[in-house]
Amino acid sequence: MSDSKNTRRGFLAASATMAAGLGFVAIAPGIRLIEAASAQGKLASSKVRYGLLIDSNKCKSDCDACVGACATENGIVEKVANPRQRAQWIRKINLVETSTGKTHSLPMMCQHCAKPPCVDVCPTGASFKRADGIVLVDRHICIGCRYCMMACPYKARSFGHQALTTQNPEVPRGQGCVEACTFCVQRVDRGLKPACVEACTNGAMIFGDLNDPNSDIYKRIREVSSRQVRADLKLDTGVRYQGI
Question: How many angstroms separate the CA atoms of 227 and 240, rounded?
Answer without folding.
Answer: 6
